[in-house]
Amino acid sequence: MSKLPSQLDGPFLTASTRTTIGSSTSHFIPQTDTGVQQLPLGALPELGVSFIRVTWVDLTNIVRYRVLPLSYFYRLLQSAQPGLTVTKSVMGLVLDTMAEGFGPVGEYIYAVDLTSLRLCTYAPGHASVLGFFQAKTDVWNEIDTPVCPRTILQRIIRQAEETLHIRFLVGTETEFVLLKSTVPPVPVNNQGWCASGALMTGAVETQVMEEIAKALIDARIELQVFHSEAVNGQYEVVTGPLPPLEAADVLVHTRETIYNVAHKHGLRATLAPRLRKDKLWDLSPVDGSGAHVHISVQKAPGSPPSPVWSEKPPLTRIEAQFLAGLLEHLPAVSALTLPLPQSYCRIIDGMHAGGTWVCWGVDNREAPVRLTKETQPKSRNFEVKTIDGTSNPYLVLAGLLAAGIIGIRDELCLVHDNCGDGRTAAEMTREERESKGIHKRLPSDIGTARKYLLEDKKLKELLGEEAVRVYVRVNEALGKAINRDGETEDTKETRLIESY
């Protein structure tokens, strides 16, 4: 019979304990030094938890999990190697197909990370936990696999803190559309941005949004605001800043909450970036769903403060260097943040989605990077807009942070001037753009973005050569799986909606 949580042997109940096995740190010891509210392992029975969803997000941004009875989960934690064995082909799964180069031989250990344990308040009796894929070797020698998205992000965060003494906070926005049907796609209403008619008392969409909000709050996630967005049936949920790994974990949980609560009420929530180029339910050009992130850059506690780089707009030196690196490598990072052919139907000028020019600006919603709260040093952040909900959040943050880290590490000079004087880059003449250092455009299709990523040596060095090669191979297969030859546009659209 399995032991109750109060009877578990070893360090599993100690949130401040860390243990080392061989040359690497064990990921399944509960520990957090980030201020994130950790769910106590021993409290699960009292909270009514009967099942644990051991969860991961694959390279195509599909959330997958195995469900373990709580009693077996406790037994797993007492084993010599607490984790599940998972086929190596997990990294090559593409909808109902397998990417080239993946086969039936080999397994990973998926080591659970108890700092990610969280109640699935949208599914009573369930909690979820994330982890790290590791090479399956002997019990005393755990080795992280280079293609695990969560491991890649964790490694980049640690490198920034250990070598550059930099820390980040990340806040996320989730836009989605609630549909009454998927064939054809019919939104729940025809209301617009922040319209009161989108949240009428008693309406099913109001019930869904309030239930999503309550579920997130009950899961100890800081919900800051929710409201209707510009597209018919579209809504946005905004969650508060966290360290990057925890922010990505929260985003995964937020999306699962949205999907599940909508399904409970007979609706389909979709994160699809845009449906039918230039024709999303016959709306104005301000449409499509994004997944913007807000990144603040700070010196680690105990480090000397970063000197002021400019006063108008106010930026510290590390902020300016981070921004310089981000802009320099943004075309390559687009392969991670905009992973589908449909993603690029949204990245056009005039969409309030960041536009097509590589630039930045204070409160400029037509720049891919927007500086917000510029006069508040503790909350000043960069909003990156060229992201949508079909992207893997761990790879998105790994790519964006790696780009900025390159800027800080290499002490890049910010050559782009503030594009926040009332005119967007698309509205400027060539000479005006050049005077602000604006020379490059974002890729207009996923094929070009992949090419930029493969050619970006510095970015590949931080992300990992093998990780980039595998991602590109899987991403190519994903594009073909979503948009299959010989199918109608309606069929492709339905698959996109039902997949994301």
Number of strands: 21
What form results from the Cα inertia axes? globular
Fraction of residues in β-strands: 15-25%
Query: What is the helix fraction of residues, given as a range?
Result: 25-40%
Q: Unreliable stretches, pLDDT < 50, 5 or more residues?
A: 1-35, 277-286
Please state the average pLDDT score: 88
What's the Cα radius of gyration? 22 Å
The biggest sheet amounts to: 9 strands, mixed
How far apart, in Å, are the first and last alpha carbons?
41 Å
Strand pairing plus helix content: what structural class? alpha+beta
Helix count, per DSSP? 11
Which keywords apply here?
single chain; 500 residues; alpha+beta; nine-stranded mixed beta sheet; six-stranded mixed beta sheet; 21 strands
Describe what this molecule looks like in 3D.
With 500 residues, the chain is an alpha+beta fold. The protein contains eleven helices and 21 strands. It has helices at residues 70-77, 149-164, 204-218, 244-264, 317-337, 393-409, 430-435, 446-455, 457-463, 465-482, 489-499, and strands at residues 20-21, 24-25, 51-57, 63-69, 83-87, 93-94, 97-98, 107-119, 126-135, 143-144, 166-182, 185-187, 223-228, 234-242, 268-270, 293-299, 308-311, 314-316, 360-362, 369-372, 381-384. Strands 11, 12, 13, 14, 15, 16, 19, 20 and 21 form a nine-stranded mixed sheet that branches. Strands 3, 4, 5, 8, 9 and 10 form a six-stranded mixed sheet that branches. Helix 3 (204-218) runs antiparallel to helix 4, helix 5 packs antiparallel against helix 6 (393-409) and helix 8 packs antiparallel against helix 10. The radius of gyration is 22 Å and the shape is globular. Mean pLDDT is 88; it is low at 1-35 and 277-286.
